[in-house]
Design goal:
- The complex is a heterodimer of chains A (103) and B (182).
- Chain A is an alpha+beta fold and 103 residues long.
- Chain A contains four helices and three strands, in the order H-E-H-H-E-E-H.
- A three-stranded antiparallel β-sheet of chain A has the order 1-3-2.
- The mean pLDDT of chain A is 88.
- Chain B is an all-alpha fold and 182 residues long.
- In chain B, 81% of the residues lie in helices and 0% in strands.
- In chain B, helix 1 (3-13) runs parallel beside helix 4 (53-71).
- Chain B contains nine helices and no strands.
- Classes of the chains: A alpha+beta (103), B mainly alpha (182).
- The A-B interface holds A 3-5, 7-8, 11, 24-26, 29-30, 33, 39-42, 44-46, 48-50, 52-55, 65-67, 69-70, 77, 80-81, 84-85 and B 25, 27-29, 31-32, 34-36, 38-39, 49-51, 55-56, 59-60, 63, 67, 89, 91, 173-179, 181-182.
Chain lengths: 103, 182
C-alpha cells in the first residue's frame, strides 16, 4: 500500500483503537499489525504527535509482569477528530465501493 | 544487531531532539522491546519490524520541524520543514521540493525588483555623476523609490502568505491531523 496514503489511515486506526479502551504502545502496533502490514517503528512518532496535539493523554500503570506500561487515553478533542475522520473515511470507501460495483 | 546497539543507534540519530524528549522516546522504544520479548519475539525479529533507527529519526525530525515552522514561520524554519519532509521519501522531492522552489521565486523576484527601485538613485548617481541629468530625473527617482517601498511591503506579505500555504501543504501531504481540523 502507498505509504503516504497509509499514514492518514494509521492515525484513524490508532484513534479508533484508543477510543474503545486505553491502550499501550505495543498493543496498538499489535492490533494494527493483525490487519495489515505496517512499519512498527513509525507508530510511536505518530502517537507522540497525536499526544502533543492533545488528542491523547498518557499515564503509567504497573503491570503484573515486567515494568510499568505507558497507556494512551483518548481525550474529548481526540474523540471529536476521530468522529470526523471516521465520517470522511466512510464517505471515501462508499464512493470507491460504488465505483467498483458499477457495471 | 541486538536491542542494546539498536537503542544506541537510535539515540545517536535522535540528537536533534531536546534531551528530555529524546529520553522519553527512547523509553518508549525500550518498553516496546520488553513487551515484544514477553510475546516471545527475538531481538532480530523486533528490529526487523521496527525498521531502521534512521527512518524512525526522520519521522521525528519532519514532525518536529513542521511543528517549529508552524509555531514560528520564517524562511529558515519553513525551508527546514520542507527539507525534512523531502527526507522522508523520493516522492516528496517531486511533490514538495519542486513546487516549493518554483513558488518561492515569485516573492523573491518581487523582492529583488523592489531592491533595484529603492537603490535606483544611487545607481543613477554612479552612472551620471552629479550632473544636470541627475537633477532632472529627481522626480522619476522619487517615484521609483516610492514604488520600491510599496513592492517591498507586498513581497514581505507575499512571503508570509507563501509560508502559510507551504505549511498547509506539508500537513496535507503528510496527512497530518491538527487541532484546527476539529
Amino acid at each position: 500500500m502507498n505509504v503516504q496514503f497509509k499514514k492518514g489511515v494509521l492515525e484513524l486506526c490508532v484513534l479508533v483503537l484508543a477510543s474503545k479502551k486505553d491502550r499501550y504502545g505495543y498493543e496498538l502496533v499489535e492490533e494494527i499489525s493483525k490487519k495489515f502490514l505496517i512499519s512498527e517503528g513509525t507508530i510511536y512518532p505518530l502517537v507522540r504527535r497525536l499526544t502533543k496535539e492533545g488528542f491523547f493523554s498518557t499515564y503509567l500503570m504497573e503491570s503484573s509482569e515486567g515494568p510499568p506500561r505507558k497507556y494512551y487515553k483518548i481525550t474529548d478533542d481526540g474523540i471529536q477528530v476521530m468522529e470526523k475522520l471516521v465520517a470522511e473515511w466512510q464517505q471515501f470507501t462508499k464512493g470507491v465501493n460504488e465505483m467498483l460495483e458499477e457495471e | 544487531l541486538d536491542k542494546k546497539s539498536y537503542l544506541i543507534n537510535l539515540e545517536n540519530e535522535l540528537n536533534f531532539l531536546p534531551l528530555s524528549e529524546k529520553q522519553e522516546v527512547l523509553e518508549d522504544y525500550e518498553e516496546y522491546f520488553v513487551m515484544a520479548h514477553e510475546n516471545g519475539r527475538s531481538d532480530e525479529d523486533i528490529i526487523k519490524g521496527l525498521g531502521s533507527p534512521r527512518k524512525i529519526a526522520k519521522e521525528f525530525l519532519a514532525q518536529s520541524e513542521i511543528t517549529k515552522a508552524s509555531d514560528n514561520p520564517s524562511l529558515n524554519s519553513v525551508s527546514r520543514a520542507v527539507f525534512a519532509t523531502v527526507g522522508l521519501g523520493l516522492f516528496n522531492l517531486v511533490f514538495v521540493l519542486a513546487p516549493f522552489i518554483v513558488m518561492i521565486l515569485i516573492p523573491f523576484s518581487l523582492f529583488v525588483i523592489s531592491a533595484v527601485f529603492l537603490t535606483s538613485p544611487i545607481i543613477l548617481l554612479f552612472q551620471e555623476g552629479l550632473t544636470v541629468s541627475f537633477f532632472t530625473s529627481i522626480f522619476l527617482m522619487i517615484g521609483l523609490v516610492g514604488l520600491g517601498l510599496l513592492l517591498i511591503v507586498a513581497s514581505i506579505k507575499l512571503f508570509k502568505y507563501f509560508y502559510q500555504v507551504t505549511l498547509s501543504y506539508l500537513h496535507f501531504n503528510l496527512n497530518i491531523v491538527r487541532r484546527k481540523h476539529i
